[in-house]
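Incident log, entry 3
Record: ATP synthase gamma chain (283 residues)
Problem: checksum mismatch between cached and fresh output.
Input:
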Amino acid sequence: MASARDIRRRIKSVKNIQQITKAMKMVAAARLRRAQERAIASKPYTDKIKEVLTSVAANIRDASHPLLEVREVKQTAYLVLSADKGLAGAYSSNLMKEVLPQVRGRDNAKLVTVGRKARDYFKRRGYTIDGEYTGFTEKPSFQDAVMLAQLMAEKFAAGEYDEIYLVYTHFYSPINQKPTTIKLLPLAGIGEGDQTPQTEYLFEPSAAEVLGLLLPRYLETVIYGALLQAAASELGARMTAMGSATDNAQELISKLTLNYNKVRQATITREISEIVGGAEALK
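Fresh output:
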């Protein structure tokens, strides 16, 4: 049985950990509010550019653009948006569970990772990493999205990839985030299906030229929105995980305090018994 001194040391260490987790929860909560506002603010722009792009595509009979080219799939790329840091509960593991079934056993699957977690996870398992980017997962900028969009567009246009998927975590609430996979390229579905333009547009100089300018912007906007969603999801998962860790630490402290009191009481009782026994022996 542990001594009273050992239990006191354990209580002190758990209290120190509790202070750290509580501080991390507060920091994540403060940053989550800003990240959530950015993610919400980007959605109307994404919806509007998609509406305009749909309208442009509807006005062109035979749209021709490298990003619209559909060809035989020989190489598939996955752009995976993960985290640079841990201590976010099951955030990273859930994302890997989303990606792994899609790339397992496929020699033609390539990975472009954003964040250290995805890079390290797939490198340890021997998967091919065509590109790795770190350092901006918690605070992504639009320039980060432009860089990724240009990279994906260039590799697709050059024929290195025949289709590209974007894998990220969609933010619903601080306790609800869902890993999501969407098809990034080719943009063959624009203007098809039952999507009808809500507004009529006049295009100058022509709808075809406007389409050529809008497609890269649309790609950048989609990736930027996904980066913001992933950042908010990471902070929400970290806030929840650190809140649970703080509560668990408090519960552990209560149990250790109770155990400490029992050990202390037993020690006092034993000492009293020894004193009484010694006094009786002297009679």
